[in-house]
Design brief:
- α18 packs antiparallel against α27 and α38 packs parallel to α40.
- The longest helix has 37 residues.
- Strands 4-3-2-1-5 form a five-stranded antiparallel sheet, with no helix packed on it.
- It is mainly alpha-helical and 1448 residues long.
- 35% of the residues are buried.
Length: 1448
């Protein structure tokens, strides 16, 4: 109950949320009271720590000895508190099951990136024509992440999306892949409702609303404008990039320094790291602690080392490695696991570079005189051999199929001919074929191989090419193919590959064919077809033909593994998983194997003998254990429940091969071999008479219990291990001499057994076997040795799966009753996991014909009061721990002292668990299918209780199939019904689960619906993933035939602590930094020169949060939540304060920016002082605009564009749509307004003083370059500041009087005229073109102003003169295109257009004249009068040419 009300949170609301989450956890009473004891110890030590204050500065100066004493006492209190807190967290993590609910593996450190940079603002590379608008101004459409819920995003898309708009796919869905783009066609009320023409498919396909986002408006005008770039800009960009490269640098991303928390003093441990190491030392037995402390003392060469000195000891990284080496030998069980996943171990004891080096060299760390192995050798003579090992990787590890294939390829000295690459060029056209599917490319390669007469070399090149295209990443294969085309390609491909195997070709070709088969059969389910077309016989025959080639044997075993669907694959598209055959296909495949020998001749060897022979060959090949395992998996699958295959394989000396596997010393293969031997024994086959070895027995029951339990890690043969373990423990004569406690497993193996119970829930024999094993363990178990409360949930789940089998249900009830009577804590846990409900369902189904069920239910009922008490205690403890952790974070933030608590990062990682894996309700399922009326299926998920799906069919035939997203375990599934539907309302519902649509066979629940119900809970707290969940309406109310369902709601994964912790962390952070921001704002308002000190303060605070996030927060979402809170609490109010005008009407930031510009001028005179001042201003501005977490730039900063045509319409609609949403102004908005004010002030001052100067325009261009340079120095290349610069220039020009504006406009037009004429004279001079470019850029600011009309008038006048003097029309066109927005009436564009049309007409007229002349001469030549007309023609040719220019 020591939960503190902080940050506006109500204490009881906080406790209620934690209690709702803790209902999902099982904590027995004794462990709970141990937690209470540790929690009270921590609170007591925290009170002492708060009382022991740090020595003040005056005490240190006046009485140093007293201050030193107080300091040492506080350090001791901090150490005691840290150790106690570490023990509490360690035990809490274990009790809550956090150490096994998520995979514990070496987590790569979170990439150290700014936690404040949520999204980057638009940037620019150089100032171009504003006809090329930013993408945000054209589209301005929202993304899915901008909406708190999927329903809000769907509503937005339904309002915004119109036919013709371009959309992008956000996730994979059937044929369409994430990232595909297309054009929206239309939508309806079907499921899915949206039809898009996808470019990748070349056709239309239906998807859901939430799967797409808008990337472009309708029509092509905007896209054309986006792509249109001035020829002049293109020409000049190449030259100006080399002259002024600052314009083209990348935008600033990380603008303030971030010191890596782990990089400082890398040679010495931080206090937090040293105390974490001490934490593990303190967990050892006293005599072992003393040994390690003596070792540290000897290494440090200290005469004595007491507790106080040990705490404050400075330890080198090298000594830490040695201590870690020693701890890894001394720590056992969960402590060793905690050590190996601790921060200090991962940093110092598990160095990747060091481990890799050791792995390569196969050596251990040298044992010097100061090493722990030597120092402790005399003291631990009876330690196990592992005591001498060091923290290195094993020198030999099992190789995967691909790696082993490559090594065997080199070992057999095979190589591809050099001419093979030349032959491969024949297939280049296939690779460049564009949007073709993988199978179509495969068919083309096969066709080329068949048509060519080049023989084996081309076949090798083709096979290697096929392997490459089949091994492509799955994301690259977006094209699908029709079913009939796939069948044709399948038949053609399999036929050719089988022919290649049967042609008795050279070994290299056979290896390539086998590799293609491995990839092909793993990717496409053509296995049965391949086996029936002679492929299986061909593979086995090749293995027999090359008995001495380990490469061929290994490749053949891999193909057989894929054929039978056993083991895992190593391909990019299916890495780490297998694709087992269905039951019917498995039986068919076994029959195909069994029929092989009957089809072969009697004199020839059995083809099945190739399998044992291959295993024997791989046993003698170094490093080929994975190939041996493949062969054993194949044998295990073949002889399982098939006596005929067992007999045939038994005649191939299989027994001796399996015995050799058992003697190989490889534990996993030994286990598999014993399983196969066990299966042979089940078939009661006579053993081979060759070399009988009656003394060699390798039955599973001969293995010890720990070895069998360890074998449960490999799920491929868990069933056999469980049955062997049952016989080993429970058969008659399997008793032990003692009390049986030596057979008890440790905690890890016990949990492995329970995991097997969950995974093999459908196997009745396994369920009963595990129950017998658990009963046996319970006979010998001592109190608190095993976590028996972990059995309850798996048992209840298995009861639900086998609810129709009375025998299984009865055995589970017997075991649970015994467990509850033996251990009262287990009875209390049963109250909290739904045991009473499960027992009630069992009684209803079996009519109370179950023994002990009533007694067990009464026992659980009696413990409910204890369960309520336990829940309250657990809630208070966990709430108190969360508050203490938050208090430590706040103290860390206040004092800037490191957090020295061991496992602090582990606790935070589990509190943040779910921050990046939370699945919303509408993301749990992919799609839904209904038995009838599919056009109304969308009514099930529209969240409207007034709409419904109505079936159409016979009674009991109605169903709804829910296809779940991969890996999503249902927390709750609810059906919405309505009593007003009367006879249409469901009355009895059966919920089924299945792996695919053809195998929905497992009953998950049966629900009877009351006539008054509105919400029917179908499933709750499922423990496994079901790909398909079927809801079958078996009966309706009042005997109705058809049914109505108002909706389906699906909740995803279980709730986590992340929302609570996030709220508390962010609220406390916000309060802390809001207070700091208020204090700093007050100081700046009193003295604006304090702005120069603001960067150091802000950088220190932000760097502190960045380091904390990098060290303790596990993922980007948690880190960015903290970063956004800091930014909103600290930066946003500060920016608002320094950008608000003061009493003088000038804001502090505006004053600072003005001083910066003044210092740029004065830098040459007072260079040092100005440089220091400007450096501080730059650093501050960089930090303040580091990120803008709001929406894109506000509307007032957008470039003024004349609203006409479609663009204007889009803009109005965009503004209209944005009105209902109130956007919070961003921190960048105020800074851009200040920058705009500074620019306007500078421009106004310049215009007032220099508008009459002869070189006015040149000075205007220079001031523009100076301001733009200052902008880039201060703010980088963010578009909003470029627009603010433009607004400032426009504001200064708008304040000119009418006559002054006319004079300025004429000056601009004349200046451009001068540079264009110079460009004519200096043809091809890059410098002249650059000057022209610089003169055009500031002129663009006239666009949208009234001044533009005057400028257009003068420009048209000068343009007419240049055109009449026959200037370069291409240059005029480029200039007009570049500054086209400055001509509101488009007169210059019309002049150039008229000129172009006139030139075209003159050319046409010239051609017409030539045509008439040719016609006339043809007539004269025909009449013989050509000579008489020569003089007349000469007169016609001498007529002068007249050219008319119509410019306007």
């Amino acid at each position: 109950g020591q939960v503190i009300q902080r940050g506006g949170w109500d204490k009881w609301f906080f406790l209620a949320i934690i209690a709702s989450i803790l209902g999902l956890f099982q904590i027995p009473g004794k462990l709970l009271f141990s937690l209470v004891k540790r929690y009270l110890c921590v609170t007591s030590l925290m009170g002492k720590l708060n009382i022991t204050a740090e020595p003040r500065g005056e005490e240190v100066d006046s009485v140093p000895s007293l201050a030193n004493c107080r300091g040492q006492k506080r350090v001791q209190c901090e150490f005691d508190f840290s150790m106690a807190m570490g023990k509490l967290i360690s035990e809490l993590v274990q009790v809550m099951g956090w150490d096994r609910n998520q995979e514990r593996k070496e987590r790569p450190p979170r990439v150290s990136q700014s936690i404040f940079q949520l999204q980057a603002l638009p940037t620019y590379a150089t100032v171009q024509s504003t006809t090329r608008l930013p993408r945000e101004e054209i589209g301005n459409f929202k993304t899915r992440s901008a909406f708190p819920s999927c329903s809000g995003y769907v509503k937005y898309m339904q309002e915004k999306l119109v036919p013709g708009m371009r959309v992008r796919m956000l996730e994979d869905y059937e044929k369409v892949c994430a990232g595909d783009e297309g054009e929206f066609l239309h939508s309806n009320n079907g499921t899915p409702p949206v039809q898009v023409h996808w470019e990748s498919l070349g056709s239309a396909y239906w998807v859901h609303w939430h799967m797409i986002e808008i990337i472009g408006a309708s029509g092509q005008a905007e896209l054309m404008a986006q792509e249109k770039v001035s020829n002049l800009t293109k020409t000049l960009r190449e030259h100006t990039a080399s002259v002024n490269p600052v314009l083209y640098r990348k935008p600033l991303s990380r603008l303030y320094s971030l010191t890596d928390w782990t990089s400082e003093k890398s040679g010495t441990l931080h206090r937090a790291e040293w105390w974490e190491l001490l934490f593990f030392i303190k967990k050892l037995e006293p005599h072992k602690q003393q040994e390690i402390i003596q070792f540290i003392q000897q290494n440090q060469k200290l005469s004595e080392l007491n507790e106080e000195g040990l705490i404050q000891l400075s330890v080198s990284a090298e000594l830490a490695r040695k201590v870690l080496q020693l701890l890894s030998q001394q720590c056992l069980g969960s402590t060793q696991s905690d050590l190996q996943h601790s921060h200090v171990y991962l940093k110092y004891g598990f160095s990747k570079g060091r481990a890799n080096q050791n792995c390569q060299n196969g050596d251990k760390i040298p044992e010097e005189s100061g090493s722990p192995s030597v120092a402790m050798a005399s003291k631990t003579p009876k330690e196990s051999p592992s005591a001498q090992e060091t923290l290195t990787f094993p020198s030999t590890v099992d190789k995967g199929d691909t790696q082993l294939n490559k090594e065997l390829f080199k070992m057999e000295e095979l190589s591809f001919p050099e001419i093979l690459d030349e032959k491969a060029k024949a297939f280049c056209s296939v690779k460049m074929a564009g949007k073709k599917s993988t199978l179509e490319q495969l068919a083309e390669v096969m066709e080329v191989m068949q048509k060519s007469s080049c023989g084996v070399l081309l076949q090798m090149a083709g096979l290697r090419f096929i392997t490459e295209i089949l091994e492509e990443e799955p994301g690259k294969q977006k094209q699908l193919i029709k079913a009939e085309d796939e069948l044709a390609i399948r038949e053609k491909t399999i036929k050719m590959l089988v022919e290649l195997l049967n042609c008795r070709a050279e070994k290299l070709l056979i290896v390539l064919v086998l590799r293609v088969l491995y990839v092909l059969l793993a990717k496409y389910d053509w296995r049965i077809f391949f086996a029936t077309k002679g492929g299986l016989q061909a593979v086995l025959r090749c293995m027999l033909e090359y008995p001495t080639s380990a490469l061929v044997q290994q490749a053949g075993l891999v193909v057989l593994k894929v054929l039978l669907g056993v083991g895992n694959y190593e391909l990019p598209s299916c890495s780490g998983r297998s694709c087992p055959l269905s039951h019917s296909d498995t039986q068919m495949m076994r029959e195909i194997f069994a029929s092989i020998d009957s089809a072969s001749s009697k004199d020839s060897d059995s083809l099945l003998c190739a399998i044992p022979a291959a295993i024997q060959k791989m046993l003698g090949t170094p490093g080929a254990s994975s190939a041996v395992q493949n062969g054993l998996l194949v044998l295990n699958m073949l002889i399982n429940n098939h006596k005929g295959l067992a007999e045939q394989l038994g005649n191939c000396d299989l027994h001796s091969v399996l015995q050799n596997c058992c003697r190989s010393g490889q534990s996993s293969n030994e286990m598999l071999a014993r399983i196969v031997l066990n299966r042979l024994a089940e078939h009661k086959l006579p053993l081979s008479q060759e070399n009988p070895d009656p003394e060699a027995t390798f039955e599973l029951k001969d293995m010890d219990v720990p070895a069998l339990l360890s074998s449960l890690r490999d799920t491929s043969f868990s069933k056999e291990v469980v049955l062997a373990l049952e016989r080993c423990l429970c058969d008659e004569g399997a008793g032990t001499d003692g009390d049986g406690s030596e057979l008890l497993p440790d905690r890890e193996h016990f949990l492995l057994l329970l995991k097997t119970l969950e995974q093999l829930g459908a196997e009745k024999s396994v369920q009963l076997g595990v129950l017998r094993i658990l009963n046996k363990f319970l006979d010998s178990s001592k109190e608190d040795v095993l976590p028996w409360h972990e059995c309850i949930k798996p048992c209840l789940s298995s009861m639900s799966v086998h609810s129709n089998e009375r025998e299984v249900v009865q055995e589970f009830i017997r075991f649970l009753h015994r467990l509850a009577t033996t251990n009262k804590d287990c009875a209390v846990v049963m109250c909290r996991v739904g045991t009473k409900e499960a027992l009630t369902k069992a009684m209803d189904k079996h009519n109370s014909n179950l023994l002990l069920v009533t007694e067990l239910r009464d026992l659980v009922t009696d413990c409910e009061k204890y369960a309520s008490l336990y829940k309250k205690m657990t809630t208070s403890i966990l709430a108190g721990c969360i508050q203490m952790v938050l208090g430590q974070i706040e103290e860390h933030r206040r004092s800037h002292q490191p957090i020295n608590i061991p496992f602090f990062d582990v606790f935070l990682r589990n509190l943040c668990q779910g921050s990046n894996v939370e699945v919303k309700e509408d993301k749990c399922w992919e799609r839904m299918e209904v038995s009838s009326n599919p056009h109304r299926a969308s009514k099930l998920t529209d969240r409207n209780p007034k709409t419904y799906w109505e079936s159409n069919g016979s009674t009991g035939s109605h169903y709804i199939n829910v296809y779940m997203h991969r890996g999503v375990v249902v927390r709750q599934m609810t059906l919405l019904v309505a009593s007003e539907d009367s006879s249409y309302m469901p009355a009895r519902i059966v919920v089924m689960g299945g792996e695919n649509a053809s195998s929905i066979t497992t009953e998950l629940n049966t629900v009877n619906v009351l006539p008054s119900a509105s919400k029917v809970v179908l499933l709750e707290n499922m423990i496994r993933f079901w790909p398909i969940i079927q809801i079958k309406i078996k009966r309706c109310q009042q005997g109705g035939i058809d049914t109505r369902v108002r909706g389906i709601e699906v909740l995803g994964p279980k709730p986590t602590f992340w929302p609570i912790f996030k709220e508390q962390l962010c609220r406390r952070t916000f309060l802390f930094y809001t207070t700091k921001a208020h204090t700093w704002c007050q100081e700046i308002s009193e003295d604006r020169r304090q702005l120069l000190q603001l960067f150091n303060r802000l950088n220190s605070a932000l760097r502190h949060e960045q380091e904390f996030a990098d060290r303790f927060l596990p993922d980007d979402e948690a880190a960015q939540a903290l970063g956004k809170t800091c930014w909103d609490a600290l930066i946003t109010p500060l920016v608002q304060s320094i950008t608000s005008p003061g009493p003088s009407g000038i804001s502090p930031l505006l004053w600072l920016l003005s001083q910066y510009l003044e210092n740029m001028k004065a830098a040459s005179r007072t260079k040092k002082r100005a440089a220091i001042f400007n450096s501080r201003v730059r650093r501050l501005s960089h930090l303040l605009v580091h990120v803008d977490s709001s929406n894109p730039e506000p509307e007032e900063l957008k470039a003024p564009v004349k609203s006409n045509g479609k663009n204007g319409k889009n803009k109005e609609s965009s503004l209209g749509a944005a009105k209902p949403v109130e956007k919070k102004p961003s921190s960048t908005t105020g800074i851009t307004q200040c920058w705009k004010g500074v620019v306007q002030q500078q421009v106004k001052r310049f215009l007032e003083s220099s508008w009459q100067d002869a070189d006015f325009v040149e000075q205007y261009c220079n001031i523009y370059l100076r301001l733009r340079t200052a902008m880039e120095e201060l703010f980088g290349h963010q578009m909003c500041f470029m627009l603010a610069l433009r607004q400032g220039f426009s504001g200064g020009l708008l304040q000119l009087s009418f006559l002054t504006a006319m004079h300025v406009s004429e000056q601009f037009a004349r200046y451009i005229d001068v540079w264009i004429q110079k460009s004519w004279a200096d043809s091809g001079d890059v410098e002249t073109l650059q000057c022209l470019q610089r003169s055009l850029e500031p002129v663009l600011f006239l666009s949208g102003l009234e001044l533009a009309n005057t400028f257009e008038h003068f420009y048209r006048y000068y343009l007419g003169d240049r055109l009449l003097s026959q200037g370069k029309t291409w240059l005029e066109s480029a200039v007009v295109e570049h500054i086209g927005l400055c001509f509101p009436n488009r007169f210059p564009q019309q002049m150039l257009k008229n000129l172009s049309e006139l030139e075209e007409e003159q050319q046409q007229f010239h051609l017409f004249q030539l045509q008439q002349l040719d016609k006339h001469l043809l007539e004269l030549d025909r009449d013989g009068k050509y000579e008489e007309e020569e003089e007349e023609l000469e007169v016609v040719e001498e007529e002068p040419k007249v050219k008319v220019l119509a410019l306007s």
